[in-house]
Amino acid sequence: MKILVLNSGSSSLKFQVIEVRITESGECDAQYLVKGLVESIGSYSQLTFNVSGQPKVRQSQSLKDHQAAIDHVMRWLISPAAKIDGIQSYADIEAVGHRVVHGGERFAKSILVDDDVKSGIEDCMELAPLHNPANLKGIEAVTALLGSAVPQVAVFDTAFHSTLSEQAYLYGLPYQYYRRYKIRRYGFHGNSHRYIAYKHRKINQIPRESVNIISLHLGNGCSACSIQAGKSVDTSMGFTPLDGLVMGTRSGDVDASILHYLHLKEGFSFDDVDNLLNKRSGLLGISGLTSDMRELIDEAEECNDRRAKLAIDIFCRNVRKYIAAYYVEVAGNVDAIVFTGGIGENSAEIRRRICEPLSALGLDIDLAENKLGLKSVDYRVISTQESKLQAYVVPTDEEFIIAVDTIRRVEGIE
Ligand code: ADP
Predict the structure, then answer these.
(1) DSSP H helical segments within 330-362, as ranges?
(2) Any idea what the Cα angle at residue 118 is, between residues 112 and 121, rounded to 5°?
(3) What pLDDT does residue 211 have?
(4) 361-390 pLDDT, tens per residue?
(5) Among 4, 127, 134, 243, which one has the highest count of C-beta atoms within 10 angstroms of its own C-beta?
């Protein structure tokens, strides 16, 4: 089945066409045909198309909204210039899978989109005002283009964390606000953590029930997830993706009283505070330089920049605190920690800094393997053979999870 996977951000669109097949043993075999990205939707947009086995194609084009972006992408996909195996017309797209950021408490699983599901996604808009509207626009744009006969599946970032216990998802706030407004931890990056759990199971050839790991998605957004018996039991992002680890521009955990204090001292409004915590904090805020980890490492190494070093130290310390807390909470029943995301996959230096002090938990990092990282392999063990706690680097693949759920829902497989 050829599946179009769409990830609509507030002003961007990531897409892939993936050919997916369910094997006789029930496993999913996936092959990507094309991947691409549209940036700056709403103004002069930049597009990148990457067809399997061909050089990248870049374009610039004025695209006023998501409908226009999806229209343009789809027309390009079927054009003779694209030369994509097996894609000549819209009829070749057999289903569409959408990443939807927030599924609230209602959507614990991926689901075929109908009017009721669309209104459910709309109900969650208040919880993810930047993302869910764009996700819904993506669904509407596909319907306008392909018609309602082509099945569409919504795959939620929050769904993997629907297994959190009340103890893990409730904040220390009066219970009535949970009852009234569903204020609780939801967790995000669910498709990434779920992929990591899946890949761990495949690498080690173990059943899902034996997957006991801590997954660390470290990119611009960062989150940790404690996975027991293949299920998420705790995660660092919360009611929104602001909570938890220090990120590129997001603060992660802060004492909420600071917000009131800043209001008194600087006259900050709620919008100002929101902007401060989401856009001007984290690595960028601490260093005063950049949110980009690669640049920070360069600044720290080449210029000995004190605040660049400080930002890196705080980032790594924070990740370790979560690892240690999750490790203790499950009484040490952790076989491995797994690094993924732009930083987790690419930075041997950050992995080393996080891992070395974890000798306290029985982790013995193999510095040579860590340095090699993902060079010429699709995953790597970066702990020594003697290490009690293992460490891995695994590239994430959220689109694979979206494609798998799409074929399963379309074919009615649970
Ligand atoms: P997003 O969360 O937006 O998907 P990514 O997962 O692509 O982001 O991660 C982006 C982050 O990964 C940036 O901070 C970038 O500097 C960092 N990164 C990418 N490559 C490296 C590298 N070789 N060393 C250190 N950091 C890196």
Answers:
(1) 341-346, 348-355
(2) 105
(3) 98
(4) 999 999 999 999 999 999 999 999 999 999
(5) 4
Cα-to-centroid distance, 181 and ligand 1 (Å): 35
Cα–ligand 1 centroid distance for 1 (angstroms): 32
Active-site position among 114, 115, 116, 157: 157
State residue 126's pLDDT score: 85
pLDDT digits (tens, 9 = 90+) for 91-137: 999 999 999 999 999 999 999 999 999 999 999 988 888 788 889 99
Distances (CA, A) of 209 to 36, 198, 213, 248, 388: 35, 11, 11, 34, 20
Atom of ligand 1 nearest to the CA of 297: 25
pTM score: 0.95
Annotated catalytic residue 366: no
Rounded to 5 degrees, what are φ and ψ at 355? -80, -40
The distance of Cα 166 from the centroid of its chain, to the nearest Å, equals: 23
Domains of the chain: 2-156 (3.30.420.40), 207-398 (3.30.420.40)
| Dihedral angle of Cα 379, 384, 390, 394, to the nearest 10 degrees | -10
Residues whose beta carbon lies within 6 Å of some atom of ligand 1 = 219-221, 248, 292-294, 297, 341-343, 346-347
CA distance 204 to 77: 37
Q: How many CB atoms lie within 10 A of CB 391?
A: 26
Contact 121, 135 (CB under 8 A): yes
Ligand 1 atom nearest 396 alpha carbon: 6
